[in-house]
Amino acid sequence: MNEMDEGLGVKGAQKEDKKEDIRLIVDGKRLDGRDFEELRPIKIEAGVLKRADGSCYLEMGRNKVVAAVYGPREVHPRHLQEPSKAVIRYRYNMAPFSVEERKRPGPDRRSVEISKVSREAYEPVIMKELFPRSGIDIFVEVLQADAGTRTACLNAATVALVDAGIPMRGLITSVAVAKVDGVLVLDPMKEEDNYGEADVPFAFVIRNGRIESIALVQMDGKMTAEEMKTATEMAKKGAMEIYSLQREAIMKKYGAMEIEEE
Amino acid sequence: MGEEILMDIKKDYVLSKLRDEERIDGRKLDEIRPIEIETNLISKAEGSALVKLGDTQVMVGIKMQPGEPFPDVPDKGVIITNAELVPLASPTFEAGPPDETSIELARVVDRGIRESEAIDLTKLCIEEREKVWMIFIDIHALDDDGNLIDASALAAISALLNTTVPAERFGLGDDFPLPVRNLPVAITSLVVGDKYLVDPTRDEMSVGNRVITITSDKDDNIVAMQKSGSYLLSEQKFYELIDVSVEKAREVRELLKEI
After folding, report:
1. Which ipTM did the prediction report?
2. What would the CATH number be for the domain defined by B2-257?
3. What is the third-level CATH fold of A31-256?
4. What is the pTM of this model?
5. Within an 8 Å CB–CB cutoff, is residue A8 touching chain B?
6. Contact (CB<8Å) A124/B71
7. Contact B222/A232, CB-based, under 8 Å?
8. Domain residue limits, chain A
9. Where are the domains of chain B?
10. Residues 6 or more apart in contact with residue B163 via CB below 8 angstroms
11. Per-residue pLDDT reduced to its tens digit, A43-71
12. Which residues of chain A have pLDDT under 70?
């Protein structure tokens, strides 16, 4: 399977191709030794780029992504300006070398879709009305991909937005749940995504330390309604863990300024 | 400008009706518009369907030809789904390369068909690694009165159901019917405050593009999902929508069984 197809891809990606000889759960553990509800190791660093107004480098397992925020700034072309609020733009892009087989540079259909749903996750959260006629640009680059890049990018973008000082109603935190070998697992890695039965990326809005609503949800694969509800609960727990790491990364950079805790 | 004012008026109307649990066209909140499905209208295509969902009209044509398989699935046919939102279908559609809306539409429809394993792709292998059947699902919007996604998904599966693989034309033996073994149905709802409207019309969409599409298969499995639009969805609503979508899909699926 081509790595470009990670998560909700359409190319050759056939979930039915689950090879009989590939077992994803062995002795109650996942291939990388994780428990079902365990995240991959996450590393987050805020403010890694000089030119951007806000930025973040993030690793989630073998995913390596970098996010940058520019703005609020003037919108070009000007006809895209909104008289009463800021325009949010989100560009998800994969580096050609981020996957096994070189990805042709530029936006493909998958990137366009990811950019759209990711932007729509942030639009109700960013306080756009404070910046009429201006634009806030969020750029995320996938440097290395290993399933769950859209979730890693959303997590990085949130930290970059905070780093840029963009006022938001809450923080976006994202994680996926997959169904592999008949069980639900948190934060699937490459093999689980390729040969699993279903993949459900979520993004939540976290406000005052608790999950308030769903900002993004997509799904492909096969799952019962009950499993979908269990998956949501599992994703919420994972999201809370990621949330504390996002906060930690922000506090690490700004903690010295003694920001008042809510 | 006139359009904008009109949208505001419609929005107020939709919302005021909704306060009394009513919809502007008199439907129940979870009621789908009348559906008409006509198949085999395009003899040049291997399969086709015209779906009318209320006043929304979508035509889907299926074309097939032999082609190279993807290296990771050398023994399976290939599905390629494309959507064109032609300017004929709405004053807001513009000619040109597919924008994010049409890409999303095509991909959500594709996901339902692919993930429900609606087509038995192993039966579409001609020569492993060399030649397989390619299925082109082309979605052509004709009239957008809201909820193009559900109409397109329904037209796509309807067209597939009456598709004949044109083997003779390519000197590959006898023609045979496309092996379809599942019936995915997409149900889209508009989320308004703490309520939701199943199968929203264009006028109802004036309250904002806040929808979620949930596709389920003949065994009530969820096979595809897409939250679309700038809004936040409560968990409670999400769970309700899953249940109502599966239930509504069952109703629509009955129509497919008559094809």
Report:
1. 0.87
2. 3.30.230.70
3. Ribosomal Protein S5; domain 2 (3.30.230)
4. 0.90
5. yes
6. no
7. no
8. 31-256
9. 2-257
10. B46, B47, B62, B64, B135, B177, B178, B180
11. 999 999 999 999 999 999 999 999 999 99
12. 1-21, 256-262
